[in-house]
């Protein structure tokens, strides 16, 4: 069985969950669900990034100890995962013993391989980004991200990043899919071509982190600690762990564009230095604005994913986020656009189709699925679905997948309008039975395909077609509904949003 490993970034617990967190998580969940339906052995990981100066400062501001603080805030992220109804196999916290062990093991390996040396750091640090910046990178005295920087002078261990420039560039060249989309890949290549400096990988001016093995005045730089989570969850440092062996080389890290450098430059360099295999792909998605405006806490325009779910339902939020922008590009969140999508694509196009067909079968045939008397060539051709949705997933084009599947829904509505089964009641009951069977069967196929995008509604539709849960993966695309089965009373699955 082919394996797939998909990860979200682990979220900083300094803040409440917002739309950016929900977006990455939902995109990963969609991919995980899709691959499972294809019969792949999937491992899906999310979690929280709990160390570092930013979290320590947030705990101080909340007048509590870092430990109590992270225990509380990480719960809100677990809660979000539950509310988003995601299918993660594991939820990792970087304060767990299994992770501290993994991070220290990686550190030791880097020391053993001579990739880390002790020195003194003097330079700029932005706590908000948990990142070091060179003087030349600053813009008007701030980090290029707009974050405040502070001057830091302290003893520090350094990772010999500068030694990996050629190896990284070769790797990018020989693995053209390692960084996606392509525009991001080009950005990373340009950055690495510009030259790399050794990276400070320990801090001494605060204590909230993983202790450096053998020198506990230092704690590990939060990014080295955090990136290791992707291996911790597979049992690292036990490289013989079956999960590590099955999944590690299949890893796809989905990240926002702002944290691409950490994943596509630092992380592979750490792994190269440790003689460990690299993940398969780093995919960077874009950023959401809110009604055209950059989202920021100071502007007070953050979007609470839980409020959206409570108002519109998880399927609608999920569908909107995945359908509205091309995965990889920036997108604009607008409430009206979400309502329009909900009402047109979900309630009208999909919901009405299902409801009209199933309620007619329920009323007219007491829910017994009619037997097709004679399928025309047109019916057979209609039931033959083009499978151009498949490549879109391997290219991570989730929005194109949604477009293609909704194209199929449009095709069903067209078939229904052309054949108007209800108008055949008096004139041609055999034809009516056939057309309704064809539509029900077509809806079954569509509902299989919509499962990764709108899982809750798809499950309800499949329930209403009396499809057993074990008969819902993509290998059943080629199966067919058995005429004469009893269907339960249908209920609408996508209520219109009235506002
Ligand atoms: N803790 C690090 C990740 C470590 S992974 C080893 C981190 N955490 S974060 O909580 O600040 O950010 C998590 C993700 O949210 C990032 O991928 C970031 O790109 C994403 N987003 C934050 N704001 C966003 C938008 N406005 N739109 C889309 N995604 C955004 O970084």
Summarize the structure.
With 499 residues, the chain is an alpha/beta fold. It has 18 helices and 16 strands.
Give short descriptive properties of this protein.
alpha/beta; binds 5'-O-[(L-methionyl)-sulphamoyl]adenosine; single chain; elongated; seven-stranded parallel β-sheet; four-stranded antiparallel β-sheet; 18 helices; 499 residues; Isoleucyl-tRNA Synthetase, Domain 1; Rossmann fold; 2 domains
What does this structure look like?
This protein has 499 residues and is of the alpha/beta class. The protein folds into 2 domains: 284 residues, Rossmann fold (3-Layer(aba) Sandwich); 142 residues, Isoleucyl-tRNA Synthetase, Domain 1, CATH 1.10.730. The chain is 46% helix and 14% strand. The protein has 18 helices and 16 strands. The strands form 4 sheets. Strands 1, 2, 3, 4, 8, 12 and 13 form a 7-stranded parallel β-sheet that branches. A 4-stranded antiparallel β-sheet has the order 6-5-7-9, covered by helices on one side. A 3-stranded mixed β-sheet has the order 15-14-16. The mean pLDDT is 95. The site of 5'-O-[(L-methionyl)-sulphamoyl]adenosine has 19 residues, from strand 2, helix 1, helix 7 and strand 12.
């Amino acid at each position: 069985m082919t394996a797939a490993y998909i990860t979200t970034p682990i979220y900083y617990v300094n803040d409440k969950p917002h739309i950016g967190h929900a977006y990455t998580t939902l995109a990963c969940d969609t991919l995980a669900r899709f691959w499972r339906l294809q019969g792949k052995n999937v491992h899906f990981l999310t979690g929280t990034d709990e160390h570092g100066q930013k979290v320590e400062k947030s705990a101080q501001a909340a007048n509590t100890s870092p430990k109590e603080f992270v225990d509380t805030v990480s719960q809100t992220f677990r809660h979000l995962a539950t509310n988003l109804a995601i299918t993660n196999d594991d939820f990792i916290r970087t304060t767990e013993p299994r992770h501290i062990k993994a991070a220290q093991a990686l550190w030791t390996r880097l020391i053993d391989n001579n990739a880390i040396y002790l020195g003194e750091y003097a330079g700029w640090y932005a706590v908000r980004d948990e990142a070091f910046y060179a003087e030349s990178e600053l813009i008007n005295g701030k980090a290029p991200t707009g974050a405040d920087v502070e001057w830091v002078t302290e003893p520090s261990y350094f990772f010999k990043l500068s030694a990996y420039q050629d190896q990284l560039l070769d790797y990018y060249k020989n693995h053209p899919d390692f960084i996606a989309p392509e525009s991001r890949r080009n950005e990373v290549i340009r950055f690495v071509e510009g030259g790399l400096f050794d990276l400070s990988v320990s801090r001494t001016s605060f204590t909230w982190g993983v202790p450096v093995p053998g020198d506990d005045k230092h704690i590990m730089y939060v990014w080295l600690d955090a990136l290791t989570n992707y291996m911790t969850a597979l049992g690292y440092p036990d490289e013989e762990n079956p999960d590590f062996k099955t999944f590690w080389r299949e890893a796809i890290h989905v990240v926002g564009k702002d944290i691409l450098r950490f994943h596509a430059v630092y992380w592979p360099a750490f792994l190269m230095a440790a003689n460990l295999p690299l993940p398969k792909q780093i995919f960077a998605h874009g950023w959401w604005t809110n009604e055209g405006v950059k989202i920021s806490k100071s502007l007070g325009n953050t979007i609470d994913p839980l409020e959206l779910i409570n108002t519109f339902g998880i399927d609608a939020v999920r569908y909107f986020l995945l359908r509205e922008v091309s995965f990889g590009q920036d997108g604009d969140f607008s409430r009206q656009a979400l309502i329009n999508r909900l009402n047109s694509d979900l309630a009208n196009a999909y919901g009405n189709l299902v409801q009209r067909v199933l309620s007619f079968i329920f009323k007219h045939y007491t829910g017994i699925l009619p037997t097709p008397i004679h399928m025309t060539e047109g019916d057979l051709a209609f039931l033959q679905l083009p499978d151009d949705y498949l490549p879109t997933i391997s290219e991570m084009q989730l929005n194109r997948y949604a477009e293609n599947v909704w194209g199929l829904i449009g095709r069903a509505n067209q078939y229904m309008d052309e054949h108007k089964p209800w108008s055949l009641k008096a004139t041609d009951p055999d034809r009516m039975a056939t057309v309704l069977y064809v539509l029900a069967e077509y809806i079954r196929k569509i509902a299989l395909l919509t499962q990764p995008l709108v899982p809750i509604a798809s499950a309800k539709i499949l329930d209403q077609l009396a499809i057993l849960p074990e008969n819902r993966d993509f290998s059943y695309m080629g199966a067919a509904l058995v005429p004469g089965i009893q269907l339960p009373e249908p209920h609408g699955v996508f209520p219109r949003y009235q506002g």
